[in-house]
Batch of 3 targets.
Target 1
Amino acid sequence: MNKIERISSILIKLQSRRNITAQQIADEFGISIRTVYRDIQILEEAGVPIVSNMGVGYSIIEGYKLPPLMFSISEAIAFLLAEKQLRIQFNIDGYELFRNGMDKIRSVLKFANRDILEKFENYIGILELGEIQQESNPFHVLEPLIQSIIEHKTVKIEYSAIYNGKTTTREIEPVGLFFMFGQWYLLAWCKLRNDYRTFKLNRINNITMTDSLFEKTHPPIKDLIKQIYSSPPYHNIVLKVEKNALFGIGSLKYNHGLVREEVEGDYIIQTYKTNSLEYFARWYLSFADKSTIIESMELKDMVKNLINKLR
């Protein structure tokens, strides 16, 4: 990255954040603090009203308007790929918002780049399998969740659990959203269970905002994820699966917690992480004749018990 590109990128960072420190800029671009000071000075001399607050960082004066940003064709294509992927993760209303955002990106491209982007779209395909469509996330759930997180107000949800199919009504304090195993999840403090719980977005049937403020101060979601997913009841499972069985498994492997796949001759070594051995065992029976359980004696025992019940 040359000097002009770096300074332009620093300007974008300043526009996208309320405050950013010199050290954060230095780490982001791999430059020294002294170079950061020089780059900021160049932006100030160019007329950008930058405010420096001791101990807080740099910011641009509120209300200052800059011309529309220009995207490179590579950046625009990256957004296009993301838009296509999101199409299978959200319902029509949610996808329309992403597509409208993509149209705004197109509007600031140079004419030549618009043509390239339009032609490149013909080289992107989406395989819309029925099972993926059934797992799409309802966008109407996201908006009140985001509002709840921002305003620190609780929501009431009707949630259908996967492991028993029962629907419960809960009041929760949403902490944040995260993507795992090919699906979007909500991490929240559940007042019914008096503990943190993970909720799959497409299992939330109804959601209602309340006027009740959060009663707890929650740690950052990154810390909670590390704490929850590095401890029981999550189980590690390793399978050795025949390659010709993969088509039948399809994308369901992601829903059951696929973490990693490695090729070993005519087999695929799959590593899973699940919080329900019984749920996993029932699914595993559908291709058990073409697979071997390498890790998790508990899973082996549960599969044997299920088979014995069939006799």
Target 2
Amino acid sequence: MKTIRIGIIGAGLIGKDHLEKYENIEGAEVVALCDTNETQLKKMAEQFGVANTYTDYRALLAREDLDAVDVCVHNNLHAPITIAALEAGKHVYCEKPIAGSYADGKRMIDAAKQAGRYLHVQLGFLYLIETIAAKMLIEEGKLGKLYHARSTGHRRRGRPFVDGYATKEFNRKATAAGGALFDMGVYRISQLLYLMDLPMVKTITGKTYQEVAMDETRRAISGFDVEELGVGFVRFEGGLTLDIIEAWAIHLNGFEGSSIVGNIGGLRLPGHTSQGKTPFSYHTQLSDMDMDATFDLGNANYRWHQLREHTDAYDSSQEHWIAALQGRVELLPTAEIALQTILISEGIYLSDQLEREVTALEVIAASKSTAMNL
């Protein structure tokens, strides 16, 4: 297999996670690392044995020996750095969300098409064994005609920085563009869009909140101006619907997992309640009796890896990326899924602002670049 030579831009928390994953992927070699924080850059380079370091991403992009660039920076930096990398002839892996706005995400996809290069977005839930199993059941007709899905994400008090985790940049529109919906909702919404075969958004309604008390000193330091809770309802072309609740902080002890239903059966994805993690389950009726079923996904996953070709190419977002660049599998349309995901999140923001339902076309027309100047 061809070795894929990678340059990573961003050596912080996310960059470290990507470095760890690439270490365990055959055929992936990180040869360059960039960050404006020289101390952090040196630390990560030494820890992971990366020989070439840069404090200016343009210098990294000037290397002619890179196959791909991995963008691990704040949301509002995704578009300018990704577009520059694509124009430099590099394939690009970008962290979620695709960007800080639909307008910026669309520019990224257009730039990839113009450059004839791949753009892959980190949508990690697409590679969970539950997602793979759900996709198989749907494609084999076990749910019948799909008509509704529910996206649920719960943290009791898990707001970045103010609740003790991660950095203050997650809480600022200037760097992150959004809060719970952009940070965690993107995983579940994209997962359901993938399972529904990426239906086109028609209308969106929703509201966001920031109500739960937080440490006032950290609030002031972080400039917390994003949502801790987002709720919404989406209508798609063809009749499908989706409802959403995504919480960074809420006075409830858990949500049931996300779900998707059809006229023959339904699926519930794992969630967290006061009783612990709920299982992946299938629901239908047999001989006029309601049936609830669970699966041995561990044994199934082991068997698929032994008997099916290229199963490892779907073990994680990074492994899929490397396999696609090696030509072993076709790249999933993660950029397009991520763009529709951000359209929905931005639609919730616009609906909240206007206090009414909005159309996809209205959201697209209202979307503005949030990209930071470099």
Target 3
Amino acid sequence: MPETAGGNERDLLRATAAKLLTDRAASARAEADQQGWSRSLWELLEEAGLTLVSVPESAGGSGGDARDVAVVAQACGYQAAPVPLVETALLAGWALAAAGLAVPPGPLTVVPPAAAASAALVPDGPGLRVRGRLCAVPWARAARQVLLLTAAPGDPSRVVLAAIDPRDCAIEPGTNLAAEPRDTLVLPSGGVACTPLAADGPDTSGAVLRGALGRALLMVGSLRRVLHLTVGYAREREQFGRPIGRFQAVQQQIAALAGAVEQAQAMTDLAVTVLDEGGRAAEAVMAAKICAGQAASVAIAVGHQVHGAIGFTTEHELHLHTRRLMSWRDEYGAESEWSAELGARVTSAGPDGLWDLLTGRTAAVAAR
């Protein structure tokens, strides 16, 4: 893949990701039922170069930008793919490359901020070591490496990175509502050394925003799948001698769902574009996560209402997406948290800063 894919290359990327995931979706989910994730699907995606999309080639990645990884992430969300694509490409790959470190092959993950708070950073000569437990780490049992990115005690401007080998830890299995791995790592008794990062390296706020964007991208893919399943079922299921999709009440519900999905899609597209262009991505990402969370409420309600009892059965695909939506909407900040933060930024910007905030562009970008 070129360093930054254009329109034709991105269409090819979209078709490739969709084909691979569609062909292996059912077998991957069956494999995940046994071990929590699909190693075979991961190896297939890795062979195709899709697991490190957006990570610079100089760091061992596939190249591309945030718009490219967004294509793959949404395809994973659409197929409920049980692999740590977002954690590897958008989070761990970004953090290692930004720190000037090589990105190893294999699945990677990053400790979320809430989990990082459960561990302790202790002095170790001139440096620091991390000890204790890291709770609810996404995909820890599958990861070759777990990254902890956190601020040093007493000095928020000093960011340190710990690269943890899960094989050196005791792993207590756990899951979220969607049965995705959210494991607890019990670190070695001696702890793990932390590497101080340069001031221009990755920071904790950037990791949080990328985590929120990654969840929003997965949610948009899953939302679109719920919409397609719901429209298809409404066309096929008959009541009183005609498809239920011909009843006005059902049509209104599906229209509300379609509107919510398109709003979430538009906001995530904007966030990804602003991130690539170097604009004010923070507010755009917040808005994307808010819209995705609000759309999830609509999708869960409408999807199950239209499907009725069959949508709650284990055999039907719908619950794979609604349970993921319920889980992902709360990870890396629920919409209520981001709404409060975004509202505070809007009010503090004042009249002079409101336009730049609304357009999401810095003066440097706008001048180009």
